[in-house]
Amino acid sequence: MTTRPSPSSPAPRPGRALLLALAVAAGLLAACGSGAETGAVDTEPDAADTTAAAANAGTGDPDFPVEIDTAAGPVTIEARPEAIVSMSPTATEMLWAVGAGDQVKAVDSLSNYPEGTPVTDLSAYEPNLEAIAAQQPDLVVLGFANDEIQAGLSGLGIPVLLEEAATGLDDTYSQMTELGLATGHPDEAAAAVASLRSGIEAVVQGMPATPGAKPTVYHELDDTFYSASSGSFIGQLYQLLGYDNIADAADPDGSVGYPQLNAELIIQANPDLIVITDAYSYGPADIAARPGWNTIKAVADDRVVVVNDDVASRWGPRVVDFLRTIADATPVPAGAAQQ
Amino acid sequence: MTAPAAAAPGGGSLDGSLPEGLAEGDGMPEGLAEGDGISGAFRLHPAALAATVAVTVAALGLSVAVGPFRIPLSQILPAVADRLALPGAHTTLTPQEQVILFQWRLPRAVLGGLVGAALALSGATYQGVFRNPLADPYLLGVAAGAGLGATIVIGGHLQAGWGPLDTVAAAAFVGALAGVLLAAALGRGAGSSPAALLLAGVAVASFLTAVQTYLVQRDSDGFREVYTWILGQLVTSGWGDVALLAPYVAVCGAVILALRRQLDVLRLGDAEAASLGLDPGRVRLVLIVAASLLAAAAVAVSGLISFVGIVVPHLVRLLVGSSNRVVLPLSALGGAAFLMLADLGARTLASPAEVPIGVITAFVGAPFFAFVLWTGRRAIA
Amino acid sequence: MSAVIRPPVHGAVTSGAGPAAARSLPAESPAAAPTRPALSLDRVEVRYGRGGPPVVRNVSLDVAAGEWLALIGPNGAGKSSLLRAAAGLVAHAGTVSLPQGTQIGPCDHRARARLVAYVAQQPVLPPGMTVAEYVLLGRTAHLGWLRAEGRADRRAAAEVLDRLDLARFGTRHLTAMSGGELQRVVLARALVQEAEVLLLDEPTSALDLGHGIGVLELVDELRRDRALTVISAMHDLGSAGRFADRLALLHQGELVAHGTPHEVLTEPILSRYYQTPVEVLHSADGTAVVVPLRTTRPPRTRIE
């Protein structure tokens, strides 16, 4: 029934925003607390690390050392990491997808996919430098920018990859590629990206032709009508499938990403498809019971789809599953044949 | 009789002549006539009441008329008449338009009005009870207490209840009451200045919020619901919310308004109020309970909307008068109007997107609060 | 210990007649006739805080109907506390009997307020409240929980305002009144209460000489007109001696002397309890005038 809010969850509803703010505040405090300590032990591990890297380099792994150009600047990884800590559920899914799963030593508390991830109580919301360092990682993947943690880990000689929330599918592909390079699986990563691309392509190709007006969708993040417009990652997926997003009326230039809609607008926009997540305990029946919502086409035609909140809020390899769910729920216009 | 002669300032005598520089009443004749101010004392002027009612009705009308869904203004009144089954009434609105009008806009406007009335009335009551112009449900730890109470019940899966009476509301009320009593006790210990009470309120609110945050962080799973509760807003209001809040507003509002005369006596302070025949402790307790119940109920349906409790009563005092027999009823009405208009702003400023209503009230309220803080230093002894 | 310690028998020391004669005024006060006590304190003790030292110890006093009793004594002697105990505003041991011999529970403020009116030394003046409203609040004890002031209450307030020549100030805000006017307004509020006993805590402390005397004369007049019993804490011994029928001298919470001004305002008593040498002179009408003596020799030279 209930799903843990994933750190990559895009919803900006006040609840999460508040949680996030608290998390950031707490994170800053925690980081400040441990910052002094890292300063004290600064030089020693650094030296030890470089020698280890040098020794490793001597063994001749052809993929290492590798320098990765990330959005945050180049990151050099001296040797094939064998004790990765992933602080992002999406990155965890990607690591497994590129075949680096068995190099992952620990993941944050919300990294629940795939089965068998080494879940710890590390908090992605409130990353704690000491708790991460205690895992003795040789690579840390973060989902949120966090200067204190990044600086702290760098100070300990631990490379950090920052894989922030994607703004489009290209980000997904490039993050998978980066993670493949960083873990010594460039070929598997390329294959995974190619298969993801073709999977998505296939879903898009399979969409029924819509000769007339595009079908419309309302993606509901919570029961206060926060939604995802085309300015968001998930909104782009709907675009890809040929949908008009009713939330775009409230976010014409896509700068908001997750506008809160007025109920009147939703009824008036009369979407063909309503998508809700399983993050809350309400379902299609509750949607239909809202006053006036029975006049909405999606409700009348029984096209209120419940998607897994994790799948809908992560930008990893499972986006294709999400796309397939939406495609399957898409109304077939009269006279149009499935291609 | 020569005694009072000496008491007149500037050596003025008592035989009817006024000392220089002193204006006489309203120019009314002396004695038992209107000019002695007795007949007008504590009276809520009908014109002020009529004006406030007019503003409130106008705010309600505007709230119902305006929204992203265009419903022709000329069609609204006939639709309302039709709804009320008035003879000869006929509406041309589509069923969908009627649903939007009667199931979304109207309950949202009514709920906004009820929440505004509740917050303004409880703010005015706290200000009277604590003799502190800056007292406000949110500054006294009331909202934080309500939030903590709700968190404990929701987190502990102790929800149960029927209609407007349920364990979450009860816990929120107990928490609200605990918050304000704690702030009052702390504030009293810290001295009699108005700032002491507020600082105590801030301390209590921070503490309760910290406990709540800790509980939420411990188990983020079950606490989505807590946030939905605390951050509940007018966006999703329906008649169900109205039914939930209305009994509290009716009962607590009636209690508070019934004690408006006593609240005026309390303005003299406990000792003098007692010497005049009032039991200050009892009156205070009844009023604090009623005001806290109002605030907790408002928080339950609308979440944290700040500054209503401070802006509205002060506007009334500035514009109409300081007697609680004027301030309390006009604050309730004015609070309703204020929040309906704020919600109108929330719905239309970024239409069809929503702006959080707290942003609007704070945008108006924060500068106003600063103004009260500035001028209030002089106004309070 | 002192000149006149009140004997245990109530009413033995004074009746209304004595003090009136002592003040050499035409003794037409209606208080002259009855001798029943309007207010009777029996072994009253007041402490602030649990286990604190008593600020009023074992004070027993009767005040006859129509009488004016002034509580005097050095700072911290317990005058205000005794008044507040009599007004039921502080918890106290012992008994306070009100007019008609009633004893009223500590929480029955309403019943007490119908019998005793109290004027604080520094009354609270709510901002924005008009004089008429303030005076009308004096009717509180006559109103039920859910009743507002009626026609009769408003008339009573209007009459008092008129009587104290405040009618023209009715719509004025309290905060716009001068000190002398304010003291009359506060008195008006107490009068509207229609209580038999009037307790005044330092009624003239905020006033200059002329306004202070004016207020005391007004109180005296009202006492006669309305058959009031007045108990006032007073700082100024001269005014106390001139206006009160009887004085009660408190020292460290104890009643150490009490009787007519002549009996109490004596050099030995005052010097002892005020801990400074005083000289008591007598004016032409027989009232005592207390003159403090310097304990150190004043310098002869003055700096111009």
Helix content of chain A: 40-55%
Largest sheet of chain A: 4 strands, parallel
Report the principal-axis shape of chain C.
Answer: globular
Mean pLDDT of chain C: 82
Question: Which structural class fits the helix and strand makeup of chain A?
Answer: alpha/beta
Coarse structural class of chain C: alpha/beta
- Count of distinct strands of chain A: 10
Specify Rg of chain C, calculated over alpha carbons: 20 Å
Beta-strand level of the residues of chain A, as a percent range?
5-15%
- The SSE string of chain A, one letter per element, is HHEEEHEHEHEHHEHEHEHHEHH
| Most extensive chain-chain interface | B-C, 51 and 72 residues
How many helices of chain C? The count is: 10
What is the CA-atom radius of gyration of chain A, in angstroms?
Answer: 22 Å
Biggest sheet of chain C, open or closed, and with what strands and sense?
A: 6 strands, mixed
List low-confidence stretches of chain A.
Answer: 1-58
The amount of beta strand of chain C, in percent, is 15-25%
Oligomeric state of the chains in view = heterotrimer
Largest sheet strand order of chain C: 5-6-7-3-8-9
